[in-house]
Write a structure and sequence with these properties.
The structure is a homodimer of 126-residue chains.
Chain A lengths: L8 H8 L3 H9 L6 E2 L5 E2 L2 H17 L3 H12 L1 H12 L6 H27 L3
Chain A binds a DNA duplex (30 and 30 nucleotides) through helix 2 and helix 6.
DNA sequence: CCAACGTTACCAGAGGTGTGTCAAGGTTCG
DNA sequence: CGAACCTTGACACACCTCTGGTAACGTTGG
């Protein structure tokens, strides 16, 4: 055990529901980056643990991926990008929202349906 | 040619630099959704053409993908999601970003140093 | 009528994401 | 010292993104 109330990666994994593998992956995505001990061990403090738990909830609740939150982070940091994207959206003369939204929704539903189907195929091959 | 000054998918492809295949893909992503003729043909008007050109520039300039702009669109439309993501980012007590980045860099350097040391130990034990 | 175009629905292949596992080696601590 | 951790790196696999095809079939216009 190391100094302070910081947990090692395995301990952090157990209390947050992530796997150690995924904690390293999350770190690489830049979303939760723990401190390091002198010898290089990751040290997860209470703040990181909380952040990991809420991140998990966020991903599940909205069915988004790490890369998407990573892009949101990029949007938040890069003012040029944020502005350019905003301008592109704002430059809609007759905003096709409703039609597009309906289409998008249908597509999403179909995706989930496909996923569900394959899962059913796997778990109930009888 | 159809009614008005609308172009068919092939014509639109030529003047915007996308391929017909990609125009359908862009449509499915919800970013540029053209009107349809009575028989189902896609009709690209001047607004859509401009939108396609600027979208192209946006993607190249920032090296992002359609799915990422699609996520930005989702962020813009879904207030719940936008708020949740914002809260998650804001709930950073001591924002580890800068420190963590610096720390990581230091760690990398040290690792290389250690590696170099061990290599020296191994290759020059004579 | 028929050539040339449109539609959807598939297959395919390269590259990224998400996740597990394993190997080779360093660290901690009883 | 030795067990039980930790580190990075790599292989593997399934799914998604992006992009190109091809097939089967409907539409348009000379």
């Amino acid at each position: 055990m190391a100094e302070g109330d910081a947990l090692t990666i395995h301990e952090a994994a157990e209390t947050t529901g992530w796997s150690p593998r995924m904690l390293r992956y999350v770190e690489r995505s830049g979303l939760v980056v723990p401190e390091r001990s002198r010898s290089g061990y990751r040290l997860y403090g209470p703040a990181e643990l909380q952040r990991l738990r809420t991140l998990r909830e966020l991903l599940e609740r909205f069915d988004v991926g790490l890369s998407e939150i990573g892009f949101a982070l990029r949007l938040r940091r890069d003012a040029d990008l944020r502005e350019a994207v905003g301008e592109w959206f704002d430059a809609q003369p007759h905003r096709p929202e409703d039609v597009a939204a309906a289409d998008w929704l249908r597509w999403e539903q179909e995706k989930h349906q496909r996923l569900l189907n394959t899962q059913l195929m796997e778990t109930a091959p009888r």
